[in-house]
Amino acid sequence: MSAPPFTILVIPGDGIGREVIPAAVAVLQATNLPLQFVEADAGWDCFQRCGDALPHETLDAARAADAVLFGAVASPSYPVAGYRSPIVRLRRELDLYANIRPVFDDPPPGDPRARRVDLAVVRENTEGLYAGRERVEDGGATAIAERVITRRASERIARVAFELARARRAARRADDAPPGRVTIVHKANVLRETCGLFRTIALDVAQAYPDVQADEMLVDACALHLATRPERFDVIVTTNLFGDILSDVACAWGGGLGLAPSANLGERHALFEPVHGAAPDIAGKGIANPLAAIGCAALLLDHLASRASPDTASAIRAWSERIRRAVRHVRAVGPHTPDLGGDAATSETTAAVIAHMLT
Ligand code: GGG
């Protein structure tokens, strides 16, 4: 390939982020694509060492990179003066407004679980209840969080969802493949202003996509359907907190959190991170499942391909497809880490992916 190297900023973060992100980097290095890796610090450990969970050098490097590969962060569940979640901050600082979490499960014929799940949760990533507007009143007896929903953010996330449904339909290729479908998820029957605005705007955007089916669902019903009838979904679009929760529910169908990758996309920047967190209970043991982080490597290559010249793009896409195939293979036959019922180490699963990808 003849292309300038792409710069990938690697932020392992906390806990198992430091074990699974090196695995993803090893997979990317094995492709021999022109990628240049730069590492930076962020997270709770970073805060404890240097008083800042997202040092400005890290933020500057993220702005300068072609893509960011992020591991996990372990923010405490109690207030700490001066601490803000670095991943929530990165998403907002880089305006990574679309968080896309694909879930895929295609069990072999005859498998009693057999139901084909192939869906994506598109989560608004910059506002909602994660806008950071929390305060305490009555001397600590009342705590208030403001939920921010704007026309601009709702419109652009709805567009991402409908474009994605269109692209997924095109990728299914077969003439008789069902049309794409976007399910707009909200709780507008109770949260009439905030969810009401999100719902109205998403339904307006739907009008511009007559080739994509649109329906709507209350978030509680959606949680039930994701648990019992996941095959009825194609693309789900929703607000920040709802998307965070629903995508974890959906992950159960894709082999659990150990296999769930995600993309955080904006107009200018892109960050890829496994859906799972820092998992302090298993951190340092060398047994974390690297497949979610490796799945992020494939999503990252898809993103670079979308920015590359046509020749380069097809070479990059070929590698992302090889990585995905290798992940599917290792998921099916092992070696499996303990979360999938095996006893393999992170390094063994990673080596198996690389070996399959290079065959
Ligand atoms: N890789 C996703 C991740 O780290 N998830 C946990 C998370 O988002 N935590 C928020 C935080 O700890 O600030």
UniProtKB/TrEMBL annotation:
EC number: 1.1.1.286
Stored PANTHER family: DECARBOXYLATING DEHYDROGENASES-ISOCITRATE, ISOPROPYLMALATE, TARTRATE, ISOCITRATE DEHYDROGENASE [NAD] SUBUNIT ALPHA, MITOCHONDRIAL
Family matches, as SMART domains: Iso_dh
Entry-linked PROSITE patterns: IDH_IMDH (PS00470)
Domain Isopropylmalate dehydrogenase-like: 7-353
Metabolic or biological pathway, per its Swiss-Prot or TrEMBL entry: Amino-acid biosynthesis; L-lysine biosynthesis via AAA pathway; L-alpha-aminoadipate from 2-oxoglutarate: step 4/5
Recorded GO MF terms: homoisocitrate dehydrogenase activity; isocitrate dehydrogenase (NAD+) activity; isocitrate-homoisocitrate dehydrogenase activity; magnesium ion binding; NAD binding
SUPFAM superfamilies: Isocitrate/Isopropylmalate dehydrogenase-like
The keyword Cell inner membrane belongs to this UniProt entry's keyword annotation: no
Functional summary from the UniProt entry: Catalyzes the NAD(+)-dependent oxidative decarboxylation of homoisocitrate to 2-oxoadipate (alpha-ketoadipate), a reaction involved in lysine biosynthesis through the alpha-aminoadipate pathway. In addition, has high activity with isocitrate, but is inactive with 3-isopropylmalate.
Keywords for this protein: Magnesium, Metal-binding, NAD, Oxidoreductase
Pfam families for this protein: Iso_dh (PF00180)
Cofactor(s) essential for the protein: Mg(2+)
Subunit structure: Homotetramer. Dimer of dimers. The homotetramer can transiently dissociate into homodimers.
Organism of derivation: Roseiflexus castenholzii (strain DSM 13941 / HLO8)
Family indicated by similarity: Belongs to the isocitrate and isopropylmalate dehydrogenases family.
GO BP: carboxylic acid biosynthetic process; isocitrate metabolic process; tricarboxylic acid cycle
Catalytic activity entry: D-threo-isocitrate + NAD(+) = 2-oxoglutarate + CO2 + NADH; (2R,3S)-homoisocitrate + NAD(+) = 2-oxoadipate + CO2 + NADH
Protein name in the entry: Isocitrate/homoisocitrate dehydrogenase
